Amino acid sequence: MSECNTRRPVSLLDVAKAAGVSRATASLVLRQSPLVADKTRLRVVEAMQSLGYIYNRGAANLRRNRTGTIGLVLNNIGSPFYSALMAGVDEVNEDGSVVTLVANSVDSPDRQIRQIRRLREHNVDGIILCPAIGSDETLAVELARLDLPCVQALRHVELLGGDYVGADYRSGIEKAVRHLVGSGHRRIVFVGAMALHSAARERNEGFRHATGLHGLEGGLVVAGGPDNVYDVAAFDRLLKTRNSPDAAVCYNDVIALNVMNRLRSLGRQPGRDFAVIGMDNLPQAAGAFPALTTIDTRPHEVGRKAAALLQKRIAQPGLANGEHIIVPPSLIVRQSCGETSAAA
Question: Which residues form the HTH lacI-type domain (predicted)?
Fold first, then answer.
């Protein structure tokens, strides 16, 4: 039998001896205790690395009755918007030595339930959930049955109750309309309106409130739907009316970029003949021509705050939930409004 098959695993006591500390001190380093001096911590870490010590996290988790994993259930894991959310979650989880298991509901309530059940089978300690379109009391019943700590993110289903972290979509739309009015625009259309989930409804409410506040015509709305589509024919008809719009606030950046392409195909130059504002501040927005003005909904920060809130619920299960954390947006002004770059 080869040496690699007979050699015993490196123990924490081996690490302690190599670092010249007690086993208790080495254990404190593993638990990231602030009671250990930096120089001592460094010696222990270096000893772990040189000896090839592997922490038996499974055994430690059994002692704590936790697995050190959480589930993240999204509806479109291929979107750069959700990638930013995932990065924020991962940052906080990395600091807490927590592993994230990602699942994709593809906006299907049935698949969402199946994914949550599978995550529970893997004994995740809790989940962050962006509810699928059409989520109803079935989801609420299932989460209650599984007794799983849950933080809703970006979208929320009222009947679920509990914790929620999201962007202030309404105030973001209001900022966009206020900026356009300040630049002299009075015929502003909202492109991509829908009422499929809370994030969409809040955008609609923001536009209605802002147009009323500034005395604008509130009926300039072009419907949208899932998969970043909007009613192109209705948009074209609006452009042919006597008092056609001269600016658009769009449901998101993808629709805004498509609107700019449509305007160019009709002989209108975005930023010069027609102002366009998107939402989400995707990487494509800054690289567009002209660069797209957008409402930054800060999904990375939403992810960080959602992960921190879930970790708090897992660590202190007796605390009453129902906390709502709303991340304020900012308006990133670029050339699609005919102006130089700025943030508001």
Answer: 10-64
